[in-house]
Write a structure and sequence with these properties.
121 residues; alpha+beta; seven-stranded mixed beta sheet; 7 strands; globular; 41% strand
Length: 121
């Protein structure tokens, strides 16, 4: 099983090919040995509005990931997130169910042909 830990700026850059985040963000890196196998987090896109993302390999999509998702969302809320948006890959089994369980609702907005879901405090 992979190990999931709070992510650093270096982890973010390593996973996303050198991309550097200049604003506020929180995240988790999924380590398998010396490789980052997955990544998830939230980035502040505007005052109080954050965008969530989660990339987990198929073989690591297990229930224990959920508590890390909750922890990252809680961190963003603690830093002032009032609105959280995310896209939902409906090809992933139970992805929509997860979004609804987290309190997200689909919107009319799309990004890269995927519906944007929104949670609002």
């Amino acid at each position: 099983m992979a190990k999931i830990i709070p992510a650093t700026d270096i982890d973010f850059a390593r996973y996303y090919g050198g991309v550097e985040v200049t604003g506020r963000w929180v995240g988790r890196a999924m380590w398998r040995g010396r490789l980052i196998a997955g990544f998830g987090g939230l980035i502040e896109t505007d005052g109080g509005e954050w965008f969530a993302f989660l990339e987990v390999p198929r073989e690591e999509r297990k229930p224990h990931v959920f508590r890390h998702v909750l922890a990252a969302i809680a961190e963003a809320k603690k830093q002032g997130a009032k609105v959280i948006k995310a896209t939902c890959d409906t090809s992933i089994p139970r992805a929509e169910e997860l979004m609804k369980h987290l309190g997200f609702e689909p919107t009319d907005e799309t990004v890269n042909n995927k519906v944007v879901w929104k949670w609002q405090n």
